[in-house]
Amino acid sequence: MTGPRRVTIAPQSGQAIRVKRGDMIRIIDPKGQQVADLWAFALDRPKLEWLSTSQTRNATERLFPLVGESFYSMKAEPMLTLIEDASPGPHDMLYPACDQALYDHVGLPNHPNCQDNLITALARENISIDFVPDPVDLFQNSLPQPNGRIDVLPSINPPGAYVRLKAERDILLVITACAVDFHPTNGGRCTEIEVEVVPE
Predict the structure, then answer these.
(1) Considering its fold, how many domains does the chain have in total?
(2) Is the pLDDT of residue 1 over 60?
(3) Residue 117: partners with Cβ closer than 8 Å, 6 or more residues away
(4) pTM of the full structure
């Protein structure tokens, strides 16, 4: 049996990571307040089945799963289960990934962004997709307010906080260290995300 793998995702970048059913995945925010965008694609059919935030909300009847609950594919099949949440949260499943259109809107052309980082990470795996699914935004502080707004506030995640997930099937994960640096989303600076994969 192989030992744990450790991957460091540099600020404002992303990586694809292959995991097998039963693997345990720990996503760590070493310096604190850094959002990690998470996607998952079925390895046997990555262009046909992926983690769906809307199906997950429908299945769990929550804005974000509790420990012991799963994240579901667009075919309503479990893909990942939340095993441990060692973060004060909150996390987000409402916002899309940041993209170049967002940065163009605020006067930052050619800015790194999570959508392009996803597409680049998939291309390294010889996978192309026709559209970008909404990610799971780990450590993002954007809970709906009583008046219906969903402002993105600075992350409250402390240094070293993490979530632990279990793969429920063979999956290609893509994780990005969120690129937003013009807004306090990431505490005013972009830092790395670490990922540890422990085989079953």
Answers:
(1) 1
(2) no
(3) 12, 13, 14, 176, 179
(4) 0.95
